[in-house]
Structure prediction request, 172 residues.
Amino acid sequence: MKAKKVKIKFLLSDLDGVIRMYLPERVSSVEQKFGLPSGAIFAEAFEKTLLYRAVCGLITDEAWRSEITKALSKVCGEKVAVAAITEWSDFSGIIDHRYLSHVESRFSGIQVAVLTNGTSRLKSDLKTLGIENRFFKIFNSAEIGACKPDMKIYQHVVNELGCEPSRDFVCR
Prediction:
């Protein structure tokens, strides 16, 4: 008996660490330039409660960065913290064009959607990177109000796409 051929409708990709990359050495150079301890920016930016509030849309990207600045001010003073976070923030990442080319050639004819734990700045970042129109749909946790790995965000995607995950899409 022949196996039933399945027609995949969607490819769901993560953004950060897959399509968009951040360079750890860039953060290190900002910390070095402003005399911050190694890892200080990430320690504040990725503090679990603060990051959760930003990626679930409970605070704006601007408020998130302001909180990071306020925390760093205790280490290096307000003027240095503002300058360091301003420079750190002036980077939207780099695109893995090889991955995008692979997806476009390997999954030609399949609608590509992105699901990311992003902040309110995501649309601006994608525009800066020139990829805001490369995807069928972009799902941003800050707009949805839930973030990965919470099942609510995946249920939102399934509902929005009107699909059945086991039949209609591939995750990358």
User: Anything to note?
Assistant: The domain at 10-20+95-171 is CATH 3.40.50.1000 (Rossmann fold). The radius of gyration is 19 Å.
